[in-house]
Amino acid sequence: QLQLVESGGGLVQPGGSLRLSCAASGFTLHSFRIAWFRQAPGKEREGVSCISSSGGRTNYADSVKGRFTISRDNAKNTVYLQMNSLKPEDTAVYYCAADFSPFGGCAMTTRYDYWGQGTQVTVSS
């Protein structure tokens, strides 16, 4: 069974940092591009960042550029989202998603077939 499991969410003060992890089970991630999405209460889901299967190409939403960094460790079958300088508006449930794509780059606007259950990130003083 193909599964993605997010972890690392929590409560953090504005200006703080968190690192989210997305671990795969039942399949290896090395041929998949991975994206992080988030959804705040009452808002539509939005793409945050994505990374190609090789890790060589990444994209970020304008709202997180310079603050968030996506990376992957295919040996550990895990993708990470390092979030620094967090703001209250970053509060949301964060989801990782995977799409089989052994070549090329990534985008948050394409279809992703596999999704995790989400992890809550709350930025508040």
Structural classification? mainly beta
- Rg is 13 Å
Helix coverage percent: under 10%
Oligomeric organization of the protein chains? single chain
Name the overall outline.
Answer: globular
Q: What characterizes the major β-sheet?
A: 7 strands, mixed
Q: Uncertain segments of ≥5 residues (pLDDT<50)?
A: none
Share in β-strands: over 45%
Distance between the termini: 40 Å
SSE order, one letter for each helix or strand: EEEEEEEEEEE
Summed over residues and divided by their number, the pLDDT gives a mean of 96
> How many beta-strand runs?
11
Total helical elements: 0
Q: What is shown here, in short?
A:
This protein is an all-beta fold. It has no helices and eleven strands.
What would the keywords be for this entry?
125 residues, mainly beta, seven-stranded mixed beta sheet, four-stranded antiparallel beta sheet, 0% helix, globular
